[in-house]
Inverse folding.
């Protein structure tokens, strides 16, 4: 299968890669010889996979994630593993145990996160495509901040087998690239059923982008252009929507009232799932050794205090609290009702429109160190988390600049209409390029 | 409102390990975040039971799995082909 190899020696001045495969083997196929970067929370057989955490330093998976197997079968060369916020927990890639990734558009700014390494590697031209993961915006945020294209597929469309889990009910692996055609090409390779992921659907992706959007109805939610959104970002996004109207689309104002509590519902859900998922990191089967002479709890606490970064420990504790006796009803149970309300809001709006459009992020990329307070970092995810709560597809495509920094246009679609959000992004991209 | 004792208790439940110096900052941050989570008090109703979910079952069949040496490769502490864990008692 791997008859050939490419030499991959990128000038990684942005700390986009945690591992570089200098000699990357590949076979033939749709992606023959194309260097593809893979986020470091996706298992790669024989290649260190750390989730940007000290607790997985030196962990070498004995198997490939399903998507990595598919990449290899298509002839792709796995060029390396990209930096991220530890376990995907962050919006800037500053929460990496191995140092932050810098934004190639301005190295005093963050690339966004948590798939910041993948986005920076593409934006800097080191690779043409990459895989990211998106739990609450982790593909779309760095795509917007770095000026590239990123798709969060419909939940269930891409297998999560071999993805090191953070929040199973929210996260999806998805394609990132310089342009929409490459995002679509990568989606063709990675989408489809996998029996090893019981949430996986048999919905392969065979589409090629089509720029004809005449007659398309676009919902414009007021919450995406209101309080908390930088007026210049809102303005650039509105111009992009106007461009879509020039191409034959019509717009319909709409509202997502559940946005009021969507972010809180998201953080309660993801931290609760994380508190359970990350219990497996105890230094026994992998990671730095737990001291087998100590008692169970003491040995684990030692390993986990030393191995996890502050944000990861904060989220594990928040989730443990939200699930604990006496608080479950107030936090977790309410969050699940809120989540259903978000789904209902989208279903209601999608009864009258084909897609929903707005900015991907409320601001341009932050300065490094700007978001030191955890809550203010969480609030930056307000426009991306609704798609994860509802499980719907959402893409970010570059739509202009503010202060010289890229702004992303976000297109959200109905469940399993990944093709349509790709078409709308493609139509916009073709019109402005 | 959570106290430093509450945070200490949560850290113990989660086996997370916490230094005394961290208790103050974690407690302050938790209170800010939990204040924000109070917006969930405005969520009403029981929520609909998700309509589009189904159990995915399969036969429990033995299939080829990883060889023992592959499984043990990442375990830092081993003995006689087994993974060595801290003592429970």
């Amino acid at each position: 299968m791997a008859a050939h190899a490419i030499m991959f020696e990128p000038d990684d001045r942005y700390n986009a890669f945690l591992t570089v495969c200098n000699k990357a083997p590949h076979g033939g196929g749709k992606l023959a010889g194309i260097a593809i970067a893979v986020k470091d929370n996706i298992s790669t057989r024989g290649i260190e996979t750390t989730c940007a955490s000290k607790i997985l330093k030196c962990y070498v998976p004995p198997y490939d994630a399903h998507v990595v197997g598919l990449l290899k079968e298509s002839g792709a060369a796995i060029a390396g593993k990209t930096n991220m916020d530890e376990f995907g927990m962050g919006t800037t890639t500053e929460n990496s145990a191995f140092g932050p990734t810098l934004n190639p558009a301005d190295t005093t700014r963050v690339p966004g996160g948590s798939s910041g390494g993948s986005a920076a590697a593409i934006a800097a031209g080191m690779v043409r495509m990459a895989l990211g993961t998106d739990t609450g915006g982790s593909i779309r945020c760095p795509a917007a901040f770095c000026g590239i294209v990123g798709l969060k597929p419909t939940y269930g469309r891409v297998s999560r087998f071999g993805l090191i889990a953070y929040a199973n009910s929210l996260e999806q692996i998805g394609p990132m690239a310089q342009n929409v055609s490459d995002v679509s090409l990568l989606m063709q390779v990675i989408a489809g059923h996998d029996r090893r992921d019981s949430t996986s659907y048999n919905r392969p992706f065979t589409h090629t982008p089509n720029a004809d959007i005449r007659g398309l109805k676009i919902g414009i939610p007021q919450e995406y252009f209101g309080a908390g959104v930088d007026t210049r970002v809102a303005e650039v996004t509105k111009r992009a929507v106007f461009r879509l109207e020039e191409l034959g689309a019509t717009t319909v104002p709409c509202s997502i009232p559940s946005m009021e509590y969507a972010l809180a519902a998201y953080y309660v859900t993801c931290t609760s799932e994380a508190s359970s998922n990350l219990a497996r990191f105890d230094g026994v089967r992998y990671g730095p050794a737990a001291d087998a002479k100590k008692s169970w709890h003491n040995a684990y606490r030692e390993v986990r205090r030393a191995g996890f970064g502050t944000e990861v420990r904060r989220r594990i504790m928040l989730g443990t609290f939200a699930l604990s006796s006496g608080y479950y009803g107030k936090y977790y149970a309410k969050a699940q009702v809120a989540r259903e309300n978000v789904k209902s809001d989208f279903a209601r709006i999608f009864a009258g429109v084909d897609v929903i459009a707005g900015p991907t992020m409320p601001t341009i990329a932050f300065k490094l160190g700007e978001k030191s307070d955890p809550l203010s970092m969480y609030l930056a995810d307000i426009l991306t988390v609704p798609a994860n709560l509802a499980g719907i597809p959402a893409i970010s495509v570059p739509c202009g600049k503010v202060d010289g920094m890229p702004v992303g246009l976000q297109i959200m679609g109905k469940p399993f209409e990944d093709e349509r959000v790709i078409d709308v992004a493609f139509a916009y991209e073709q019109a402005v390029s | 409102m959570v106290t430093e004792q509450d945070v200490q208790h949560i850290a113990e439940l989660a086996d997370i390990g916490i230094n005394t110096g961290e208790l103050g900052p974690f407690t302050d941050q938790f209170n800010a975040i939990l204040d924000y989570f109070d917006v969930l008090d405005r969520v009403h109703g029981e929520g609909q039971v998700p309509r589009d979910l189904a159990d995915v079952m399969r036969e429990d069949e033995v299939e080829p799995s990883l060889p023992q040496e592959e499984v043990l490769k990442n375990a830092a502490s081993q003995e006689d082909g087994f993974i060595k864990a801290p003592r429970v008692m």
Q: What stands out?
A: Chain B touches chain A through 47 residues (CB under 8 Å). Residues 35 and 41 of chain B are 11 Å apart (CA to CA). The two ends of chain B are 36 Å apart (CA to CA).
